[in-house]
Amino acid sequence: MIVRVSSVKDLLLRLTFFLGPTGIFFTPVPGIGSLRSFYFATAIVNIVFLCRMAKRDLPHYGALMVIFLILFLSSSFCLISLSYDVPLYLNPVVRVLVICNLMFGFFNVSRMILNSCRKDILQVLLSDSFKGFCCVFFLGLALYVGYIAGKVPSDIYNRFTTLEQEAYGYSRFSPGTYPNEFGVICSFYALYAVLLSQRKKGGAIYLLLSAIFMGGVFLTSTRAAYITLAIGYTYIAFSSPGLIRRLVLCILPFVFAPVIVIVLGHFSFDVIDVITRGYDSAANQTGSSNVRMEDWNAAVDDLLDNFYFGVGFESPKAYSLHNLPLQIVYGLGLLGVLLLVLAFSVFAYVNSRSSWVVRLFYSDDWRFLRSVRVVLFIHVIIFGLTNHNQAHFFTWMLFALCCIRIKMYGPARSGTLNRPGFRGGYCV
């Protein structure tokens, strides 16, 4: 019975991570809007933990509950003060409920990881998310090619995206979500495939997949994704062990880039033209970046009139600023931000003092997981500065990984553990 319950929990974990990068692709149901599939899996995780809550988690839940109350009260204040009706997906209270479902859910995910009997559960979950991405990428690519060729009707295609957009004369590639988000997702998994190529047999296959996903980045024509791809690849290249491996990684872009440009050129997609026009429009203040700058300036001016309490968390004024730090400050105001920082600091302190949240790994696994976490951090930060990523899978996956202290397993401690890679959890 013990093994059976533990296996069910692991299966729920794996389903959550598999669905994470897929957006709405596997739930193309009219009427649910942009509610991603993994939101529902996360809700099930929360229900499981409500039925059996561990006493040692109560301080963590207390801090998270305070965060929830801060966000909920701010959004409720905003909703009361609105003089017009808003659609359900713009309702600030509904948006807070979605965000807090993910906050509690991925904290619980971190607990399920720690409690898992599998030593390699983190690697398995990352692998599952990679498989989910591969499914949505290649199925979505087939759908995309059919759409631009006129074989797939627009009403069918639009069921599998949250927002269909065109730019520079092209339809932007974004199965399961909208182009800016999918571009960053492609960037992360392109780099994840590079990391896998260094530790798996058949590394050439992973490098090929990485090149394909880099092509997907350009099909989304997302500037933030170009930046995350460049910064993340630079980190991997210079942090890799061994001079030869670093040299190979430095040479690979010069091999990948021409091939990607030529292949996409056969589909009438001019990579160089798209990049050049995108950054020219940003420099000349004629594109979307100029619109965002104007919105940011307007938000800062309005914030001065709502300095202490803000305009309400996830207010229709704030939610689409495409700059998460400004969005939070504008929504909560000075007092709300101070309370939020205090509550999160308490949560971080409580978590740091919990000795059981440590999970140990052999050196190779530890280096791999450390690199994944750094690359993930780069993507979350860059995307947060250019978009609204508070309900983004990567944001909360990083949160879950940061709730776990990943430490290297060394020979000096080999006598203290029966099973390397497992500590602090229990099988239930």
Helix-strand pattern: HHHHHHEEHHHHHHHEHHE
Characterize the overall form: globular
CA(first)-CA(last) distance: 9 Å
**Count of individual beta strands:** 4
| Fraction of helical residues | 55-70%
Number of helices: 15
Low-confidence stretches: 411-426
Q: What's the quaternary structure here?
A: single chain
Q: Would you tell me the structural class of the helices and strands? A: mainly alpha
What's the helix and strand layout?
Elements: H1 2-19, H2 37-51, H3 58-81, H4 92-115, H5 121-148, H6 154-157, E1 166-167, E2 170-171, H7 179-197, H8 203-220, H9 223-239, H10 243-266, H11 271-283, H12 288-305, H13 324-352, E3 358-361, H14 363-386, H15 393-402, E4 405-408
Parallel strand pairs: 3-4
Antiparallel strand pairs: 1-2
Helix pairs in contact: 1-2, 1-4, 1-5, 2-4, 3-4, 3-13, 4-15, 7-8, 7-9, 7-14, 8-10, 9-10, 9-14, 12-13, 14-15
Description:
There is one protein chain. With about 425 residues, the chain is mainly α. The chain contains 15 helices and 4 strands. Helix 1 packs antiparallel against helix 2. The longest helix is centred in the C-terminal third of the chain and has 29 residues.
